[in-house]
Amino acid sequence: MSVALITHPACLEHETGMWHPECADRLRVVLRALEKAEFQPLIRELAPQATREQLNRVHPLAYIDQILNTVPEPGQTHEIDGDTLMSHGSAEAALRAAGGSVMAVDAVMEGWARSAFAAVRPPGHHAERGQAMGFCFFANAAIAARHAQAHWGLKRVAIVDFDVHHGNGSQDIFERDPSVFYGSSHQFPCYPGTGAEHETGLGNIVNAGIAPGTGSAEFRAAWADTILPALDAFAPELLIVSAGFDAHKADPLAQLRVETADFAWLTAQLLGVARRHCKGRLVSLLEGGYDLPALAASAAAHVRALMHD
Known about the structure:
- The chain contains 9 helices and 10 strands.
- By secondary structure, the chain is α/β, with parallel strands linked by helices.
- Helix 1 crosses helix 9, helix 7 runs parallel beside helix 8 and helix 8 packs parallel to helix 9.
- The termini are close together.
């Protein structure tokens, strides 16, 4: 079995303006990097649109309708907040991002892929149940987790998040649900202000804050000493990864000093957890990463590690 790469051209049609960091070029450089010869074995699939039923497992119907009915005229944008903008193509892009995340779960559960990487945008881990924020509209990882439970009958699903910003949306959705584990490394303090170590939910939330200006040693220690042992103890049946690459030392939106090789190291560690508990099943979803060369190199290192498991 190989690794599935799930994406869709509609994800490029979410237009955020010339100076916005969450731009279509982010996805373009990732896909370009994954066109190289070494990545030809990837199973390439187009992301479907998520259904209302899939979205409604996480988001209220009124909120879903609010997002899907906001379709500005071409060339215009609608501002949800100072960071989060909708263009004419945003609603479909958000549906494809969520639907691609669901498809990634189906890929590993049906067994036609060992693991899956959904190269989609907009990202999702800041989206709360009824609030878009931080570039995010639908909570892609949470939607994937709920699909795994509702459609596949899984009892224990884990979401781990190495984006430099804490996934407040993922935590908000699951902090009172012990069937889902959420573990996050992130710069602390930083946007959005959540993710303190005392935020533990029902014992299913593990936050490892990393001080600004620190790098590889602190990043690896956060995982090796804190998150990975808790993840092993939870023993998930499926592992979902919120794969943000903005902890990289070149990224302009935070101040960590993580190297490209650290993402490959962590991917290998997570694959070990998946082998021990999940029959190897791992789903990865693109989140942040805003320096284009660093994002391309880091995403390629991540996918390379998935392929060479």
